[in-house]
Write a structure and sequence with these properties.
By secondary structure, the protein is an alpha/beta fold. It contains 29 helices and 15 strands. The chain is about 55% helix and about 10% strand. The protein has a seven-stranded mixed β-sheet, sandwiched between helices. Strands 2-1-3-4-5 form a five-stranded parallel β-sheet. Strand 3, helix 17 and strand 4 form a beta-alpha-beta unit. The N terminus is likely disordered. InterPro entries: BCAA_transport, Leu-bd, Peripla_BP_I, TPR-like_helical_dom_sf, TPR_rpt. Belongs to the leucine-binding protein family. Pfam families: Peripla_BP_6, TPR_6.
């Protein structure tokens, strides 16, 4: 990490140097197409300058004198300018004609008709760059250009004039050049001018105005490279020096360039101890120093403790506090409020101010991304509780302990194929990100294991009837594509039934006689238990038998249907199938879905009625601690409990005293026996554990002993 910063900083220094050379050279190197000749005033190119030989002419001089008298008597300066231009038009190649052109330009300028003033002065300087009043004409030309928005032309002319000016005139030209540079977006040049203006200021008022301009430019206008270029070599005696130096320090802070941050702040406090920025600089230096000061027994947790997500934050916190009972570990709770900006602030606080050796959370996707990025920058071990896929790819300081969609799909595919021996599947899923992601994960996992997906149907998230989707799964929707249906239609037509009613009944009978094509053994439905209880009856209507896991049930169905060769299908689901208990004491999934959901299997990250000893111990401890609520723990409480216990175990047993040591210890955690399963962190710092496979029967939900079933399969030689 340090080496990477050194390389970055070296590159940055090279860029600053290169930019400084480029910007220094730019104003003095006119190009053929863009730059203007300094001598001509900025709006005319040197290469195209004509050779006009002007001469004295008595008649022209008389006409000019008469025009001057008329112009002085005319209060309308624009009309007066036209009087001069008539002389110019009549006597173009005379000194009187050029004087008339200059006087017209001055009148347009005084009338604030800057477009005509610019045109007039440009014409004069184009013809005679050595005109006696050329310097004044150039100045007025530049100001006119600035007033009409031609800032780059104005900047080039003004800087050219300032190079040859002195004293108050030079100061005025530099101020105008700075204004033109800012208008043109040339913030580097504008900043240079403002800094010079601050250094040349004679009075306190002038100094304050110049410094204020510098502050405006460094806040959101001038780039980091601009600031670094101007600051390089600047004397601390310049009133603008503290502004630039402190801004650079703040930039280094945001870049996490700790070495240069500390160097810049120490220099600042040494050279400008009485600056208005000094208190902030001291705080920032102390904050940067504290980043490596760790309290080995302080752990932070980032959760939404207020706002719309408060209930889930409180659920996790109950588990965390339960895990730390009886421990001297200090828990610092940071309320993210479900706000990504507050999450970022909280992450910095726990690193700089609280000295936490590690952090738990957050839960929400955007909060987790922000926290993970900062954890990596600040090198704080973060055990996140988010479902966001790929979150640990951000860096080695990011861990995750949470049930993910990919883990669920993998667990279902593994059980269905390696334990049940299924090879062919179908998928019925809601057309929302959750459903699409899980359908894709399951499909990919099945294919990677050598299986096939025979059909996939999507439905709307708010759909309540599923007849069409069920028909499509078994080939009864597009009957015109089936040969047996075409044959049945021909048979009805061959009967030559003339009565319309009888013919319609015959066609309905023929349609009901078309056998379903059930070429899959398992059907994956990644949806909420409420929707599942609506889907399963529609499947039964299309003769998809899902409730025949008991041989007696299968025999009963054979007798009822008169079909000996029944193809049964096992339904598979995700943790969204977990439902609260209804009035009967049974899960609402079973109350609503009835016999159509029995024999189904779904996966979860926690099961309150599990027979696993670690899970039973957690449930008992939780019930004792929160018996006044009358509620059992769920996945969030269990995940919070396990995550906090992992961190506690590492702190108690390995006693890391740095965040790097804490990260190494956490990465090496293996076979942690927790409420959510025996957990180890893999090489991607993802929690690997055996999830809970749950089966549904008419008495409720039961945990499947996967190891026992696998052993039975091996023992049978299947």
């Amino acid at each position: 990490m340090h080496l990477a910063m050194e390389v970055l900083s070296a590159s940055r220094r090279a860029l600053v140097a290169a930019l400084a050379l480029t910007l220094t050279a730019c104003p003095k190197t006119p190009s053929r197409t863009d730059s203007r000749d300094d001598t001509s005033g900025g709006d005319s190119t040197q290469n195209d300058r004509p050779r006009v030989d002007v001469k004295q002419d008595a008649t022209a001089n008389a006409a000019l004198a008469q025009a001057r008298t008329q112009a002085q008597a005319n209060p309308d300066k624009k009309q007066a300018a036209e009087t001069y231009l008539s002389v110019r038009k009549a006597y173009p190649a005379t000194t009187a004609g050029q004087d008339a052109l200059y006087n017209a330009g001055v009148l347009y300028f005084e009338a604030k008709d800057y477009a005509n003033a610019r045109r007039t002065f440009n014409e004069l300087l184009f013809e005679n760059p050595l005109y006696a009043q050329a310097e004044d004409a150039k100045h007025k030309l530049a100001v006119s250009a600035m007033e009409v928005g031609a800032y780059r032309d104005a900047y080039q002319t003004l800087t050219s004039l300032a190079e040859r000016a002195e004293g108050a005139e030079k100061e005025q030209l530099l101020k105008e050049a700075a204004r033109a540079a800012e208008g043109a977006g040339l913030f580097s040049q504008a900043l240079s001018s403002a800094v010079k203006e601050a250094g040349d200021a004679r009075t306190q008022e002038e100094k304050a105005a110049a410094v204020q301009k510098v502050e405006q430019l460094v806040e959101g206008r001038a780039s980091f490279l601009d600031i670094a270029r101007v600051q390089e070599g600047l004397s601390p005696s310049n009133p603008a020096w503290p502004v630039l130096q402190f801004k650079l320090a703040r930039i280094y802070y945001h870049l996490r360039d700790w070495t240069r941050l500390e160097e810049s702040l120490q220099t600042f406090l040494r050279e400008a101890p009485n600056s208005t920025f000094a208190p902030q600089a001291k705080d920032l230096l102390a904050r940067a120093t504290r980043r490596v000061e760790v309290r080995p027994r302080t752990v932070a947790v980032l959760l939404p403790m207020t706002g719309r997500y408060q209930p889930i934050g409180e659920a996790v916190l109950r588990g965390v506090k339960l895990a730390l009972q009886g421990s001297d570990i200090e828990l610092v709770v940071k309320d993210t409020q479900g706000d990504v900006n507050k999450t970022g602030t909280a992450m910095e606080q726990l690193a700089f101010d609280d000295g936490a050796i590690a952090a738990l959370g957050p839960l929400l996707v955007d909060d987790t991304k922000r926290a993970a990025l900062l954890a990596e920058e600040l090198q704080v071990p973060l055990l996140t509780l988010s479902r966001q896929e790929g979150i640990t790819d951000i860096g080695p300081y990011v861990f995750r302990n949470m049930l993910t969609n990919s883990a669920q799909a993998r667990a279902i595919a593994d059980y269905a194929m390696n334990v049940k021996g299924y090879k062919r599947f179908a998928v019925l899923y809601p057309n929302i990100p959750y459903g699409v992601e899980l359908a894709n994960e399951f499909w990919d996992d099945v294919v990677s294991r050598g299986g096939t997906v025979r059909g996939a149907e999507a439905y709307s998230y708010d759909q309540t009837t599923f007849t069409s989707e069920a028909k499509r799964l078994v080939g009864r929707y597009y009957l015109e594509d089936r040969g047996d249906w075409a044959e049945a239609v021909r048979d009805v037509q061959g009967e030559k039934i003339t009565d319309a009613y009888r013919r319609r009944k015959a066609m309905e009978k023929a349609k009901s006689g078309v056998e379903p094509i059930i070429d899959f053994e398992g059907l994956f439905i990644p949806d909420d238990w409420r929707r599942v209880s609506l889907v399963t009856p529609a499947l039964a209507v299309e003769d998809i038998v899902t409730n025949a896991c008991d041989p007696r049930d299968l025999e009963r169905i054979r007798k009822t249907t008169g079909k000996k060769d029944l193809k049964t299908v096992t339904l598979f689901g995700t943790n969204q199938w977990s439902s609260p208990k209804g009035r009967s004491g049974l899960p609402e999934l079973l109350e609503r879905g009835g016999k159509f959901v029995t024999c189904s299997v779904y996966v979860d990250g926690f099961f309150v009625d599990s027979q696993r000893p670690a899970t039973q111990k957690f449930v008992k401890t939780y019930r004792d601690a929160y018996k006044e609520t009358g509620r059992d723990p769920g996945l969030l409480e269990a995940i919070g409990y396990d995550s906090a216990r992992m961190v506690r175990q590492v702190i108690d047993k390995q006693r890391p005293n740095t965040r790097a040591a804490m990260r190494e210890a956490l990465a090496g955690l293996k076979d942690f026996d927790g409420a959510t399963g025996r957990t180890s962190f893999n090489d991607k710092r993802e929690a690997d554990k055996q999830l809970f496979l749950l089966s549904v029967d008419n008495k409720g939900v039961n945990e499947i002993n996967v190891d026992k079933e696998k052993a039975a399969v091996r023992g049978s030689g299947s």
